[in-house]
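Subject: Class I SAM-dependent methyltransferase

B.,
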Amino acid sequence: MFSPEGPTLRELAVQALSSVERGYDLLAPKFDHTPFRTPDAVLDAVGSALRRMGPFGAGLDLCCGTGAGVGVLAGVCRERVMGVDFSAGMLDIAREQVRSAGPPVSWVRADARALPFAPAFDLVVSFGAFGHFLPRELPALFAQVRSVLRPGGCFAFPLVAPPRPGSLGYWMLLGFDTVMRVRNALWRPPFVMYYRAFRFGDVRRELARAGFRVDLHALPEFGPRRDGSPRVRLAVARLPVRPVRPGRVNS
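Prediction pasted inline below.
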């Protein structure tokens, strides 16, 4: 929920009628007081899971926002940690408030679809950013992630189970996406943020095509759903230790 320190309705309207980059520049000072920030419970659970898999060398938080995920990386990486985002406003807040007693932390402004790095990272994470990418952009996005990982490197991100059809959560997400599609049909520049467009079946296929092997790890902190399946999983896409050329996979 929004806290009293969060943005006003007018501020949210101005953000929603801006581009994605400008909108986040405007929202940055109050972003951590909105429900858009990844909850600490998710960050802590992901950190615990990654500690069981690590330690890692260098880590990159993709679309880092105000830097919440960088704290996760600082707890599992020994070499260095970097946050990358295309919003200068979000990076300014991250620089002010993120402190690490572990590896050195740096910040880079860049588009996730055109990362300016060599294969220098062992772990890439991302929290809550995939709604900003249309499904047709996923192959290029995952190719960029692959390009910055060393052989054997991992790309990890949490997956919350979708709400059941007909539930309140289902109708809320459907309503949000519908409003955004109408907004983008009538207003320019577009603001791309669709909660229901990130379908894991498609994501898994595109990750495999990019050369990753994908595993899912239940995050037990969130318990099971009624059908026994996990409420939240950690997707871990790993590159082979020996580089291979990405290829097609069967659908």
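The two ends are 39 Å apart (CA to CA).

T.
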